[in-house]
Amino acid sequence: MNTPIYTKLMQLKNEERVPFHMPGHKRRGNGVFKEIENLDITEITDYDNLHHPEGIIRESMDRLRLIYGTRESWYLVNGSTVGILAAISACCEQGDGIMIARNCHKSVYNAIRLLHLEAHYFYPDLSKRYDLIENIGDRQIKEIQDILENNKKIRAMVLPSPTYEGVVMDIARLKKVTEKYNVILIVDEAHGAHFPFHEYFPKSAIDCGGDIVIQSTHKTLPAMTQTALLHLCTDKITPEAISDMLSVYESSSPSYILMASAEYSVAFMNENGDEVQGYVDNLQIFRKKCEQLKFIHLIQKEDLCCLDYDRSKLVFSAELSGWNGITLFERLFYKYHIELEMADQCNCIAMTSVCDSAEMYDRLFEALKEIDREIAAQGIKEKNKRREIIADGFLVPEKLMESWQCIGMEKEWISVKDAEGRIAGGYVTLYPPGSPLLVPGEKIVKETVEKLRYYIYNGYNVLGLSGDNMPVLK
Ligand SMILES: Cc1ncc(COP(=O)(O)O)c(C=O)c1O
After folding, report:
1. Average pLDDT in the 421-433 region?
2. How far is the CA of 190 from the centre of ligand 1 (A)?
3. Which of 66, 178, 345, 462 sees the fewest Cβ atoms within 10 Å?
4. What is the per-residue pLDDT for 380?
5. Long-range contact list for 238-247, CB < 8 A, 24+ apart?
6. What is the pLDDT averaged over residues 91-118?
7. Under CATH, which number does the domain 273-385 receive?
8. Atom of ligand 1 nearest to the CA of 219
9. How far is the CA of 338 from the centre of ligand 1 (A)?
10. What pLDDT is recorded for position 389?
11. What CATH number has the domain spanning 403-473?
């Protein structure tokens, strides 16, 4: 495979170098780390430098550029998180405006905080039936246009696509809007690193007009945790501006193991068409078999009003039976030792990759079949109530001040039931999926209190609360 970093790293053990340099283990460790330490180096002679690539890393990133068809691409060793921080920082200066989908990852909110940006939100549609984010359509486009028309300080727009659940947004349509207002379109494609490698998967934002696209190789490619890629696809921002910001946020001692792993995962997908085809075949067979299930439903594109859907994400809804995602998740884990990625009150999600074997899909299907029969034997329980409370969409709180303006202000913890009329003093986030219900500086209204009390009463995982108390500004 064409892997300059990985190949060179593999040669190291044949060289007799005496390491009077970092890291301190000197490749002489013991136990489980020994093998790994043999490959764990910093910028030693001939091994290049991620922050100033001229050798093997340059060669490898040039290949990334060709594979993805980008202007420039970088390996990241601190996840998409660092890519998002660097991308926003390269596009926006302190005090600029930014337009973001409310369901953005927390790194986007952290960038707003660090750069003191003026935040403008748009709220995607939610599927009433499956409690998933499903679309950015006419309503949002109109709202976005109105906001951009009236806020000339907005420099960038950020949104996740695909979502955690695999829903792909219409990037080409958003691009037309951002282009008109000279706004840079940053697409958080953390969950879509596999898109470019088979037509069964949706088109990558790289090919739909994303100006900067960030992908976590560790989420869906055979790569180690924390590895990711940043792709620059526009000439509105210089590669130097991105490199400059990456050097601010990213370690000055980036791990070669992680770089080699990211490189290897891309080369593997690019050069092993048969393996990728095998992966797609497994997914197709599995999806077909799941049509037999009567109570557990595997979500398909047709269930959602969306532009496209990533069929590598297996989102199961047991809503028809009254089971919720968490009960299904737990049954799969405790009885069948099958561990999915996440669950909430509606759905549970299995993440797949090219590394899954046909046997793994068989085991999952057989377990689901048994659970489906078990549900049938039990009879239908009371329907899942969650939809009733959340299906009316996102809360759209009024912003009274920017989140970063609340830092250092006096706060107090009060009972959620007494919070109406107060201003949020911290993030309150429903996890999963992790989109903030409240951002610091937002007004707490009756509807917010009602929803929060519902979540607390029903045992949802609401981050930012302590029991049923929440932080508000004094
Ligand atoms: C939509 C989305 N964006 C960004 C990230 C951050 O990615 P990473 O863990 O690679 O830093 C995540 C992490 O789960 C995510 O779900």
Report:
1. 90
2. 6
3. 66
4. 65
5. 239/71, 239/72, 241/90, 242/72, 242/74, 242/86, 242/87, 242/90, 242/212, 243/51, 243/74, 244/90, 245/85, 245/86, 245/87, 245/89, 245/90, 246/51, 246/74, 246/76, 246/82, 246/83, 246/86, 247/51
6. 97
7. 3.90.1150.150
8. 10
9. 23
10. 46
11. 3.90.105.10
